[in-house]
Write a structure and sequence with these properties.
single chain; alpha/beta; Uracil-DNA Glycosylase, subunit E; 6 helices; 5 strands; 33% helix
Length: 181
Amino acid sequence: MARFTPEELQAARDRVVPDVVAEGLRVLFCGINPGLMTAATGHHFARPGNRFWPVLHRSGFTPRLLKPSEQRELLSYGLGITNVVARASARADELGTEEYREGGRLLAAKVEGLRPRWLAVVGVTAYRAAFDDRKAQVGPQSRTIGDTRVWVLPNPSGLNAHWTLDTMAEEFGRLREAAGS
């Protein structure tokens, strides 16, 4: 992976990283917003400490461990990636309440157009803020967006230490089973 100077990472602030999407996916994974490493590389979940790619493989969604630069390969497995908030920031706590709510509205419209079987939001706090659902927990939700069911997954950030690689893979695996292989 390329090394970036602090200045190069800061220059990536507020960039938008293109979605990896197609109509009719099995699962559309939805991050909170791009981090600076993701924005600098143009690849989702690119920060070295992020566990998204290892968990995706360990849970059985992908037959091998993909690199962030191979993100378009997800489409061949019926998977995609988007974000609640499109703009990149150093930390998710830089996002405001209205930004989350607007992101939730835009996400719902995107999901209505793409019609994935499942929307999987990685981060319960982001889901709660985007959809004004303070009681949401990790797991399947009662909410649907059109015919799309919603599942909240643990945030794969390395900062989310109370979820281990194994416990996250177990939760992602529950979604994989529900979504069909």
